[in-house]
UDP-N-acetylmuramoyl-tripeptide--D-alanyl-D-alanine ligase
Amino acid sequence: MTLAELAADVSGTLHDGSSDTLVTGLVTFDSRHVELGSLFVALAGARVDGHDFADQAIEAGAVAVLAARPLGVPAIVVSDVQAAYGRLAKALVRRLPGLGVVGITGSVGKTTTKDLVGQVLSQFGPTTAPPGNRNSEVGMPENVSRLTPDARFLVLEMGARHVGDIAYLTSVVRPQVGVVLSVGTAHLGEFGSREAIAQAKGELVESLPADGTAVLNADDPMVAAMAARTVARVVTFGRSPQATVRAEDVSVDAAGRPAFTLVTPHGTARVSLRLHGEHLVSNALATAAAALHFTDDLPLVAQALNDAEPVSQGRMQVSENPAGVTVINDAYNASPVSVIAALKSLQTIAAGRRMVVVLGQMNELGDTSADDHIEVGRAVGKLRPALLITVGNEDAVRLGAATAEAGVAVVHAADKDAAAELVAQHVRPGEVVLFKASNAVGLMPVADDLAAGVSR
Ligand SMILES: Nc1ncnc2c1ncn2[C@@H]1O[C@H](COP(=O)(O)OP(=O)(O)OP(=O)(O)O)[C@@H](O)[C@H]1O
Ligand SMILES: [Mg+2]
């Protein structure tokens, strides 16, 4: 699109640039993501002001900046940059009238499920489902700008930290299919209560049109109750026998990969995932339910699930390093539910081999944080690994103390570098190591280094 077209879409005025310049690259607020042909969005954040990075963005290849004031470089000037970013995303979607949009929310599994839905829908048409996590009022428009002109499907993760966040995201891009995975305790700190979280996540299904589909988790009562909040058709998924789309005969192989019979109104199909972790059954069911809104070709949906690979980094990536250490990198983030799920997978994958658990603190749990860490520490104790390495703040220490009570050896690392040293010191060939923590702890590169056999 040209700068003139974009300026018209956001009711902005073009300064210092030529109206027929084409924007061909990412529309991004992150100067590190700027590529040739980008439009750089100068957002003023709490810590930095994007306007200070305008020159740098132009040098990096951006053809113009979306900004709140003229900057001496080509700029589309608007009064509210963030609102304009949303309007721009909306305008992009409006240009593709046949586009099928899937929105995914929930307390855990959004990115994993978005990656699965993207891989399944790409069997049915060109699909934009960008890897990674960008799910906020600024991340989602960036992902929308990755739409290709031939796109038939767009799959978006929608995150919420407050009531109203998802309503905003759906006002930018209104999905036809809304998937709600779970109402857990992630971000309980900001929300205050699980009811508030349910209120926020349910905004997704409130936005759906009557000919849309709400895909709701039958196994999570707070999600199932959202059926009352939508005019769309409701399809439930889960392990429970009442679910519209469900799994029967679930088994897990020695590598921790689940297989099951996918039961749907369109018939049944056998699914064997290449991905690791029994918890993925639920995500795969949600994926099938979402895909069946657009197709009734169940065999192709099942085949695409069978072929699906890990896409985004740090979510149950299982590999063996040159020294024969099995590394489970699940270090992108952590909440009690996902740690328990990962411990279960670790046990299956280890199959009696020596296990080492590297666990950092789980952030943003609010008032229950200390108790949650103690509970997870006890779960580690029950698993009886050879060693637990805790990483980070006093919550991580609390977790370790609860594990030590079960007689398991525990050492503490103050940060990721100390953790890397302890890993190098203690981990031996033939062992299985799980890395898990909130992203801020920074364990992803430590796991990557071990997986690559890099020693420090
Ligand atoms: N259904 C599930 N149940 C339990 N754990 C899960 C489930 N799906 C994914 N996980 C695990 O939870 C963690 C986070 O997964 P993912 O990144 O997909 O969630 P998310 O909802 O996108 O998180 P965020 O809020 O950070 O965007 C990963 O460790 C993943 O393996
Ligand atoms: Mg995510």
Summary: DSSP finds 16 helices and 20 strands in the chain. The longest strand covers residues 245-252.
